[in-house]
Design a protein that fits this description.
The chain has 4 helices and 2 strands; from the N terminus they run H-E-E-H-H-H. The chain is of the alpha+beta class. Strand 1 and strand 2 form a beta hairpin. The longest helix has 19 residues. The protein is elongated, with a radius of gyration of 23 Å.
């Protein structure tokens, strides 16, 4: 079990490059800033996301639906501890499996 002190130490270590040992114990050396300004950081982040999506062959699929249905879906999903995206993905998979198994009583 992780207590708050351990969490803080691990969180701080995530932002450090190396651990330097001195006379009174360890000293964490912070990472140097890679980007001079926020625009450089945003551009680098955009490129990183693009590389990830390209590598995983991820494509965005837009979905249009009435606002009241979307709000109802969001509430349903949050009540069941699931995200809207994971719910939609599961529904698509379930529908595909039904069609493959030959169930003909599926409504469009």
């Amino acid at each position: 079990m992780c207590n708050i002190v351990t969490y803080v130490i691990l969180t701080e270590l995530a932002f450090c490059d190396k651990l330097v040992y001195g006379g009174k114990g360890a000293v964490y050396m912070p990472r140097e800033k890679k980007y001079v300004n926020d625009d450089q950081r945003k551009a680098a982040q955009f490129e990183a996301v693009k590389r990830y999506k390209d590598a995983k062959k991820i494509k965005r699929v837009p979905l249009d639906m009435p606002e009241d249905e979307l709000e109802s879906l969001k509430k349903f999903c949050s009540d069941h501890g699931e995200s809207v995206t994971s719910f939609i993905k599961a529904a698509i998979q379930e529908r595909k499996e039904r069609l493959i198994s030959g169930e003909s009583n599926i409504e469009s």
